[in-house]
Amino acid sequence: MDLENYQHIQEELKGGKARLVAVSKTKPLADILFLYNAGQRIFGENKAQELLPKHDALPKDIEWHMIGHLQSNKVKYIAPFVSLIHSVDSPKLLSEINKQGIKCGRVIDCLLQIFIADEETKFGFDKAEVMDFLASAEFTGMRNVRICGLMGMATNTDDEAKVNAEFAGLKAVFDEVKATYFAQRNSFKELSMGMSQDYKIALKHGATLIRIGSLLFGERA
Ligand SMILES: *Cc1c(COP(=O)(O)O)cnc(C)c1O
Questions:
Q1: For residue 123, is pLDDT > 90?
Q2: Which of 23, 90, 108, 136 has the fewest C-beta atoms lying within 10 Å of its C-beta?
């Protein structure tokens, strides 16, 4: 646990429009409570089966964000309480979230994940796919999800120019999607980008949610 890093990051965010998502995956309840007691309220997890018991055990004013690849058959576990799903990487997944939203009488806030990195392991839509999907009847018929913005992960590299270019590219897609489909919607405002090693670059490019794990909780096993 690194309270100094926590306070330092909150200090950096002060006066700006970005909020911190503390990524607590693999970390115990005690670590989460420690940051909670320091004032943190938004926590991110990447597995539904880990998110559910943590939600059950911890204070109910925590906003839980799902940030990792989500399998359709796991949506039902988190649909009743999740505050934001960052990692919607396919129409099929969004359709399942909508279905579970109907079941529990909620409109579930989501971000569409955009593929911006080199790595094959990163999930997401490309720009053409996201533009087509948002125009489709399949999407406009979904009443129990609300798209609040976009999310992306840069290539894991020390090459700052590359990371800069990837975040700038994501911001450009955000601006185009906003202008084309959500110009009138104040709720479309989130740009989730930046992790421990690249969040400063992400902030320069307009991130509104930064997802930080290891800087706060230490390296994961
Ligand atoms: C684990 C994870 C993070 C946080 O990574 P750190 O490098 O520990 O800050 C951010 N986003 C996603 C999607 C993650 O899975």
A1: no
A2: 136
